Amino acid sequence: MSKILVTGGAGFIGSNFIHYWLFNHPEDSIINYDKLTYAGNLDNLTDIENSPNYTFINGDIGDPQKINSALKDVDVVVNFAAESHVDRSIIDPAPFIKTNVSATQVLLSAALDAKVKRFHHISTDEVFGSLDLDSKEKFSESTRYDPRSPYAATKAASDHLVRAYHHTYNLPITITNCSNNFGPYHFPEKLIPLAITNLLEGKKVPVYGDGLYVRDWLYVEDHCSAIDLVLSGGKVGETYCIGIDMNIPNIDVIKKILKILGKPQSDIQYVKDRPGHDRRYAIDSTKIKKELGWQPKHDFDSALQLTVDWYQEHKDWWQKLKKKEKDYYEKQYDKR
Ligand SMILES: NC(=O)c1ccc[n+]([C@@H]2O[C@H](COP(=O)([O-])OP(=O)(O)OC[C@H]3O[C@@H](n4cnc5c(N)ncnc54)[C@H](O)[C@@H]3O)[C@@H](O)[C@H]2O)c1
What we know:
Elements: E1 3-7, H1 12-24, E2 29-34, E3 54-58, H2 64-70, E4 76-79, H3 86-91, H4 94-113, E5 118-124, H5 150-169, E6 173-178, E7 180-182, H6 191-200, E8 205-208, E9 214-215, E10 217-219, H7 220-233, E11 239-242, E12 248-249, H8 250-260, E13 268-271, H9 286-292, H10 300-313, H11 315-324, H12 326-333
Helix pairs in contact: 1-7, 4-5, 6-8, 6-10
Bound molecules: nicotinamide-adenine-dinucleotide.
C-alpha cells in the first residue's frame, strides 16, 4: 500500500493517470496536488472525487510550506505539474520558467526532505530538439538535449535539475520522456482536441504552415501503463523514452479526423506557422520495451476513433473550457 502524491493531477495526463492508478491499484491512496491554472480542471475527476483513497489539495509546487506539509508520509511523487503548451510559451515564457524550473526545484527539495522512496518526473521528447523530415533518426535516452521552444527549454532544465538532485543528494529519481499524448480530457487548445471540437462546432481546423510536422502520437492510457512499469521496475537514476513508433504528419492526422466525422477537406484552414516549429519528433522506445516489457495496447487509428467518440459524448466538458478561453483562441488563430 503506497501513498502517492500526483502533482498536476487536474490536467490532461495527470487526471488520466489518477483514473488509471485508482483502477489498477485500488489499495494505494492518491493525493492530487494542483494549482488549478487555466489547464487544471477538477471536472476531469468528478467520478472519483469522493473515493476514500483520493484527496485533492489546491496548491503550487513552488509553495514550500504547502508542498512540505502535503508530502508528509508520502512514498512516491509523480510530477506532472507544468506549463505545457508550446504556443503559450512563445507568447510569454515567464510562467514556464516559474513553474517548470523554479517551482520544480522547490518540489525536489521538499521531496528530498520528506525522504520519498521515488520521485518520478514526467518529461517530453521535445527536449531533444527536431529531426529532419527525410532522416531515419530517432530520439533515445542517449540523445543530446537540444530544446528549441521556451517550453522545451524549461522542460530540459527541469530534467537536468531532477538528475542533479539524484547525483548530488541521492534523491531516488526516474524520468520518462514521452511523445505527444492524446485521449480523453485533453485540453481543447492542443492539435487533436482542437480539430475535433472545431469540427463538432462547425468551424474549420487551423493547421500550421504546410502541415508537414511529424509527431509520434501516443494514447494517454499507454503512457500511464508505461509510468506504472517505471515506478514498479524502473532503475533509480534512469531515464526511459516512451513512444509508439508511428510518425505521421499533422495534416494526415487532421484528414483522419475529418474522415471519422464525415467532414470535407475544405474544412482545413492553413494558418501562419508557429515560430521555430520543430519538423519531426520520433522516439525509440526499445529500452522500456526490453527492460520493463512495456507494450502499447492501442494503435493510432483505433485510439483516434475512441478519442473522437469521447469528445462527441462530452460536449459539456469542452464547451465550457473553450468559452472560458475564448480570447486565447481568437488571438491565436483569428489574426492570420
Ligand atoms: N501533453 C503531452 O502530449 C505531453 C507529452 C509528453 C510530456 N508531457 C508532460 O506531461 C506533463 C503533463 O502534461 P499535460 O498535457 O497533462 O499538461 P496540462 O497543461 O494539461 O496539465 C498541467 C497541470 O499542472 C497544473 N499546474 C501547473 N502549474 C502548477 C504549479 N506550479 N503547481 C501545481 N500544479 C500546477 C495545472 O493546473 C494542470 O492541472 C507535463 O509535465 C508535460 O510537460 C506532456
